[in-house]
Design goal:
With 229 residues, the protein is mainly alpha-helical. 77% of the residues lie in helices and 6% in strands. The chain is built from 7 helices and 3 strands, in the order ααβββααααα. Strands 1-3-2 form a 3-stranded mixed beta sheet. Helix 4 crosses helix 7 and helix 5 runs antiparallel to helix 6. It starts with a helix and ends with a helix.
């Protein structure tokens, strides 16, 4: 009977969150695909746009390079390497400009000591620990009937949600910086900028969905183990 009761938590909490995450993934892929087929009027590639924005902000120690895969774009503050997937590195689509400038936004954040990104970086190791040992500890405590161990496991697991929560302002700010740079430097025309905004907004939804999934899982586990008490 208890097993069926626990399934209700999964049904009403986790499944809706997973459906949101699925919708977000479909949304970002479809939006990116749409605007990756629209060439910007100026003919700028993502790499050129990224370099122009970096130069505008006086950042001269960041290297831009292509990377394999699709939507694998990222900025590594330790190596100061801005990696763009091949389609965004050499492509001249509206989507390429939006994504490239978003990654530059992260480079600017690090260059200006943007506080939320410093907090997120500090949370990476503890969030990794939480993802590895949180659930096993909670399950061990559940099986053994040792409630303090359950609490420790859930607290460690909650670090994932905290990390994802802190990630939201970092990603939103990077997109805001990207759009600001695009507009100030005239990288895209006004109607093209709207397309870039749609791409970045769709990407932002994936971070929101990830947080919702983590919170749903955390609440489900809390209710499940609390019910055991």
């Amino acid at each position: 009977m208890r097993f069926m009761y626990m399934d209700i938590y999964y049904l009403i909490l986790v499944i809706p969150a997973m459906l949101l995450a699925l919708f977000a993934q479909i949304k970002v892929k479809s939006t990116y695909s749409k605007f990756s087929r629209v060439r910007n009027v100026r003919g700028l590639t993502g790499a050129q746009a990224a370099q122009q924005v970096l130069s505008y902000y006086g950042i001269t120690d960041v290297t831009i390079r292509p990377i394999g895969g699709n939507l694998t774009d990222n900025y590594n503050p330790k190596t100061k390497v801005l990696s763009l997937s091949q389609a965004n590195f050499s492509g001249s689509s509206i989507a390429a400009i939006g994504v490239a400038c978003h990654e530059v936004g992260h480079a600017i954040q690090h260059a200006t000591d943007y506080y939320p990104i410093k907090v997120r970086s500090a949370l990476v190791p503890v969030a990794n620990i939480g993802s590895w040992v949180g659930i096993p500890l909670a399950l061990a405590g559940y099986v053994l009937g040792f409630h303090p161990l359950v609490s420790i496991g859930l607290m460690l697991y909650s670090l994932i949600a905290i990390f994802q929560f802190v990630t939201l302002p970092v990603e939103f700010n990077a997109s805001s910086r990207a759009i600001k740079a695009i507009e100030e430097q005239g990288l895209l025309y006004e109607d093209e900028t709207q397309g870039a905004k749609k791409v970045l907004s769709a990407a932002a939804l994936t971070y929101v969905a990830s947080l919702v999934v983590s919170l749903a899982n955390l609440l489900r586990l809390f209710l499940r183990f609390n019910n055991r008490k």
